[in-house]
């Protein structure tokens, strides 16, 4: 029987029972194809920022390492070992979800002249270029979610970097089971997204 997809070391097999209790996941019978529950990012941050700007912003798709750049939901079992949350997946590749939600967060402020993705024909002033460095459930020291995104504001007219900064949030899982873990990821991302948008509005 297995709960987490991917390879598992002998040490982790011995510790598996404890981890199952910690995150409250149901076992999947061997030889049975499990149906994945599909999750999205739903929390939309409330942005407190400066007065409106007429600048137009492009949000390219974030970059990420292969383990993150997929529909799988990452679980960190220890400092150097990653697995994926069983019977669970994002509704799209994670970088595309993050991109869509960042665009929506900028739009919801009503404080920019325009915001969009590549190919939408905007006359761009600045690009908000991002890298997803961490987007994971962490079981090393209690169930929590960690999201870290590095962002750069690039002048689209001359290619110079206006500002750059790393944004990180850690949120505890409130409850047990997969919905609680996804909720923690959702809340951590909402905090990071709000910080990126507020920082961008101030910087441009």
Keywords:
single chain; about 200 residues; alpha/beta; Rossmann fold; 8-stranded mixed β-sheet; two-stranded parallel ribbon; 3 helices; disordered N terminus; signal; ABC transporter
Rounded to the nearest angstrom, the radius of gyration is 19 Å
Mean residue pLDDT: 83
**CATH fold title:** Rossmann fold
The number of E-state strands comes to 10
CATH top level? Alpha Beta
Query: How would you sum up the global shape?
Result: elongated
Number of domains: 1
Number of helical runs? 3
Organism: Xaviernesmea oryzae
Protein name: ABC transporter
Domain ABC-type transport auxiliary lipoprotein component: 45-197
Signal peptide: 1-34
Quick summary:
The protein is α/β, with parallel strands linked by helices.
Verbal overview:
By secondary structure, this protein is an alpha/beta fold. It has a single domain, classed as Rossmann fold. 27% of the residues lie in helices and 29% in strands. Strand 8 (126-138) and strand 9 (144-155) form a beta hairpin. Mean pLDDT is 83; it is low at 1-33.
């Amino acid at each position: 029987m297995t709960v987490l997809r991917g390879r598992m070391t002998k040490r982790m097999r011995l510790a598996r029972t404890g981890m199952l209790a910690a995150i409250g996941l149901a076992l999947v019978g061997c030889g049975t194809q499990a149906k994945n529950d599909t999750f999205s990012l739903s929390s939309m941050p409330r942005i407190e920022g400066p007065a409106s700007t007429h600048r137009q912003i492009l949000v390219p798709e974030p970059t990420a390492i292969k383990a993150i750049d997929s529909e799988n939901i990452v679980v960190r079992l220890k400092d150097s070992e990653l697995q994926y949350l069983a019977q669970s997946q994002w509704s799209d590749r994670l970088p595309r979800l993050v991109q869509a939600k960042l665009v929506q967060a900028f739009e919801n402020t009503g404080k920019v002249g325009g915001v969009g993705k590549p190919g939408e024909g905007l006359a761009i002033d600045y690009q908000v270029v991002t890298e997803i460095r961490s987007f994971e459930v962490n079981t090393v020291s209690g169930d929590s979610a960690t999201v870290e995104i590095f962002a750069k504001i690039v002048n689209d007219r001359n290619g110079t970097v206006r500002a750059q900064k790393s944004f990180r949030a850690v949120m505890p899982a409130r409850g047990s089971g997969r919905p609680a873990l996804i909720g923690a990821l959702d809340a951590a991302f909402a905090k990071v997204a709000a910080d990126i948008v507020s920082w961008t509005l101030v910087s441009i």
